Write a sequence for this structure.
């Protein structure tokens, strides 16, 4: 196993670092040691804008998906019979492994100008709304990718919340909503944070939603990266973008883990 | 009490709504793959299988499909074998650098696929391996190992640790124990890992897009089609892809469930 992963994974990632210092001379890659790619990319206004935009989009996706997922995960954990629960968990696991590409394309059918949703709106005298090639469409795409996972992660931590704690809160006349926010959310903190982190990581690196649903304008980092590879041989610049993304994700992941496990040190 | 009922109902309704949202794209794709109209709209254009016919007639799609099947079968088999070895090593031995070993095994899916794709393309082009079908297999194996490893490792941790020792005491050698105790016990997980990694590889578009060169797999074909035109053919291809990968994922989940009652009984 280690041989395989070192050969095709570690070596590839390491080479990406090396590549980012190479140069492109008359459309050919040349081994070199230059900071030109880094300086060029980091100095470019469009790169800085894109970076910020991508971070914002991914944060928004994480927040929206967490908010949509929570009542669902909560309902699953506390208000549904065990058999139904198992069935739904089973159902939610399936989409993660089925073609995300086609699923996000299907949204286009639903959302386009003369699409399904606008026709429905038309019947009740609304619209047509412009729902493709914008942030809304991109978010719908991100949600397609991350919502099932966010629900599942939140759910797994919610079912493990000690029922006695909730019972005790009720006995002490803690109101329903207050119990949710004062007892249940803190007890399920780890799962909720991990879910949001996953949402961030997945949407940060996603290429399909911002390009096919969001219309690539304005681009995200992943689009920038793919463009520099596919149109033109700017591999070293693509490497710079990719490494920046990896680094950002590492920072986010560590921050999230510290936030989730750090304070309190309660073990599991 | 009435309030409690209402909350329960509301939450259940919400769960159903979210499920609908999650499955809406899959349903839409199915419905419109049988639509006679070129542009999907709400008055359905009538039942037609012409988009399926168009999809089957497209030589690129046929070639992509064949490539995908080859890649999915080979990479799932290799990944499951390596995943089993990794899981068993983790279960059985303690050694220096084990955390690093596990990180290596589990890390790849946490890195965005397009970055993995880029890194692999850049590296494999340099060593002269890029653009072939086996290149895609190599890369998919990297991406699939963690899934296989996690499933099998989970199953191993459910095993009674004394079983292995008992087999040794009864005179079974290392290999025989592995063959007659460990393998039968982990068999459901192995089967499940095989199906799951097959589904993962079957649907993987980003890595394949970067490294496959002219040997496009079906998801790459879809990606190219999506960039070029909006055609209901994509719905037809997509529906077939959904059917196959959902079947695989369900098989993977069923494989894990089947043996459970027997284990609890015996």
């Amino acid at each position: 196993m280690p041989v395989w992963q070192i050969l095709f994974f570690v070596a590839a990632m390491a080479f990406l670092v090396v590549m980012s210092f190479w140069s492109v001379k008359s459309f050919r890659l040349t081994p070199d040691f230059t900071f030109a790619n880094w300086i060029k990319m980091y100095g470019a206004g469009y790169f800085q804008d894109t970076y910020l935009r991508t971070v914002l989009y991914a944060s928004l996706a994480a927040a929206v998906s967490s908010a949509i997922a929570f009542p669902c995960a909560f309902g699953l954990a506390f208000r549904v019979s065990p058999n139904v629960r198992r069935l739904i968990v089973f159902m939610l696991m399936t989409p993660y492994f089925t073609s995300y590409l086609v699923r996000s394309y299907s949204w286009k059918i639903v959302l386009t100008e003369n699409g399904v949703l606008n026709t429905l709106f038309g019947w009740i005298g609304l619209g047509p709304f412009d729902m493709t090639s914008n942030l809304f469409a991109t978010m719908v795409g991100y949600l397609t990718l991350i919502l099932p996972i966010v629900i599942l992660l939140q759910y797994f931590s919610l079912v493990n919340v000690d029922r006695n704690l909730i019972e005790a809160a009720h006995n002490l006349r803690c109101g329903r909503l207050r119990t949710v926010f004062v007892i249940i959310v803190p007890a399920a903190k780890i799962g909720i944070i991990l879910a949001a982190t996953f949402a961030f990581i997945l949407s940060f690196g996603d290429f399909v939603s911002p390009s096919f649903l969001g219309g690539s304008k304005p681009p995200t980092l992943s689009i920038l990266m793919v463009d520099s590879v596919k149109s033109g041989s700017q591999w070293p610049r693509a490497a710079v973008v990719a490494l920046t993304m990896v680094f950002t994700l590492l920072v986010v992941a560590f921050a999230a883990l510290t936030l989730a496990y750090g304070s309190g040190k309660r073990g599991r | 009490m009435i309030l409690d009922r209402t909350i329960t109902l509301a939450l259940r309704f919400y769960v159903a709504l979210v499920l609908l949202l999650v499955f809406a794209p899959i349903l839409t794709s199915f419905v419109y793959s049988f639509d006679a109209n070129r542009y999907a709209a709400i008055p359905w254009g009538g039942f037609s299988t012409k988009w399926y016919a168009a999809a089957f007639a497209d030589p690129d799609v046929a070639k992509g499909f064949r490539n995908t099947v080859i890649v999915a079968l080979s990479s799932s088999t290799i990944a499951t074998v390596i995943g089993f070895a990794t899981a068993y090593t983790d279960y059985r031995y303690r050694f220096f650098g084990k955390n690093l070993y596990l990180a290596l095994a589990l890390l790849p899916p946490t890195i965005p696929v397009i970055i993995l794709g880029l890194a692999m393309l850049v590296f494999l082009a340099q060593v002269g391996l890029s653009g072939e079908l086996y290149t895609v297999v190599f890369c998919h194996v990297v991406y699939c190992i963690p899934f296989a490893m996690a499933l099998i490792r989970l199953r191993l941790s459910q095993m009674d640790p004394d079983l292995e020792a008992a087999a040794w005491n009864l005179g079974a050698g290392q290999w025989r124990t592995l063959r007659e105790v460990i393998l039968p016990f982990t068999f459901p997980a192995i089967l499940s890992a095989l199906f799951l990694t097959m589904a993962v590889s079957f649907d993987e578009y980003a890595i394949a897009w970067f490294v496959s060169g002219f040997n496009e797999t079906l998801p790459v074909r879809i990606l190219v089609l999506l960039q070029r035109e909006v055609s209901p053919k994509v719905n037809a291809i997509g529906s077939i892809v959904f059917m196959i990968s959902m079947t695989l994922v369900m098989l993977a989940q069923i494989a894990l469930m089947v043996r459970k009652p027997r284990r609890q009984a015996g």
In short: The first strand of chain A starts at residue 23 and ends at 25. Chain A touches chain B through 77 residues (CB under 8 Å). The beta strands of chain A are 23-25, 28-30.
